[in-house]
Amino acid sequence: MHPFLSDRQHLLYYLSGWLASGAALTGYLRWGGWVNAAAFALPLCPVFGFTALSAYYVCQALPYSQRAPSRVAGLFGMASLLSGGMWWALAQIWGLALQSLVPGWPPGFPGAVASFPVFLCGVVLYLFSLLIHDAWIASDNARQENERMQAMRALAREAELQMLRTQINPHFLFNSLNSISALTAIDPAGARAMTIDLAEFFRYSLPASSRGTTTLGEELGLCERFLAIEKRRFGNRLGIEWRIDEAARTCIMPPMCLQPLLENAIKHGIGGLAQGGVIRIEALVQGGWLRVTVSNPVASGSATLPEGAGVGLKNLRERLALHYDTRASLNARRDGQTFLVEITVPRHEETAQ
């Protein structure tokens, strides 16, 4: 269906343009009297306007990929001349009808004097209609291509997010199973308890990781289950300190963002210290931003960025970029014997999806 006919507003704009053309033709034919000129021109132009809708299909018959200047000029020129002839014939029929139906109609008006100008007017108006429809089709094609590219980018982004998510659980599962294996020989009861804790963690984490977003409160709940597993492994060597702003618990963020940071803190921090240490998790709301910081002690003389920690941070940084574009940041730094990672994301308080 023609796009102008399927949209009432566009159709009104289109007919208004043809009525304006009728007003211009009325002014040209005013020598026969304003009333007579208006009676002839104003009905004629909108009727021809519906005929000129065929310009849409003429433009569609010549795809942009197959266009050459000579083909466009030939097709548009021939279509305009044929339509000008139709316009002239329609004007002649309408003029004869007015002479027979309207008493006192000026004999021969508009007559031969206006024949060529009317024909030329039809050619020009149809050519103008062709140009309008061609621009419309080009704009619509560009819009559809833009929508297609946006859809493809969204699909690619979702696929990349899914790939990054799948890198989290297997890595953690591998480490946890190694821990359970180590406990089996020295503490069978602890190994059984850790297995139950691991099952509980995955029971809650799998639904969360499949969603696009979660609340910080839910994310912290997963972190507590993860740390309960690691606490069985490290015992008193692992201390946990929470500093959570209550207003931050309802903030929205991507799922499974904090667990990789805690895993890094244990593997590259606490695990390398004979006396262990304390992992601090802080979250606060500052204006329109949610800031979450995970800090842990590191051995003196170790690298600024613990070896192996960069992969997890790179993974998380990419996930944040895909989710927030440039509006989120992840900063990692060493301050003396403390390693800190700070996540900053826009503050949103909505129901998690």
Description of the molecule:
The chain is an alpha+beta fold. The protein has helices at 8-28, 34-51, 55-60, 69-101, 115-166, 168-186, 188-210, 216-234, 259-268, 309-324; strands at 214-215, 238-244, 252-253, 277-286, 289-297, 329-335, 338-346. The strands form two sheets. Strands 2-4-5-7-6 form a five-stranded mixed sheet. The longest helix has 52 residues, at 115-166. The radius of gyration is 37 Å and the shape is rod-shaped.
Strand content: 5-15%
Distance between the termini: 38 Å
**Radius of gyration, taken over Cα atoms and rounded to an integer in Å:** 37 Å
SSE series: HHHHHHHEHEEHEEHEE
Shape: rod-shaped
**Are there runs of 5+ residues with pLDDT below 50, and where?**
none
Largest sheet, if any? 5 strands, mixed
DSSP summary: helix tally? 10
Percent in helix: 55-70%
Name the structural class: alpha+beta
Give the mean pLDDT.
81
Arrangement of strands in the largest sheet: 2-4-5-7-6
> For this entry, what is the oligomeric state of its chains?
single chain
How many extended strands?
Answer: 7
Keywords: Membrane, Transmembrane, Transmembrane helix
Protein name: Signal transduction histidine kinase internal region domain-containing protein
GO cellular component, one term: membrane
Domain Signal transduction histidine kinase internal region: 159-238
How do the strands and helices of this protein lay out in sequence?
Elements: H1 8-28, H2 34-51, H3 55-60, H4 69-101, H5 115-166, H6 168-186, H7 188-210, E1 214-215, H8 216-234, E2 238-244, E3 252-253, H9 259-268, E4 277-286, E5 289-297, H10 309-324, E6 329-335, E7 338-346
Parallel strand pairs: 2-4
Antiparallel strand pairs: 1-3, 4-5, 5-7, 6-7
Helix pairs in contact: 1-2, 2-4, 4-5, 5-10, 6-7, 7-8, 9-10
GO cellular component, one term: membrane
Protein name: Signal transduction histidine kinase internal region domain-containing protein
Keywords: Membrane, Transmembrane, Transmembrane helix
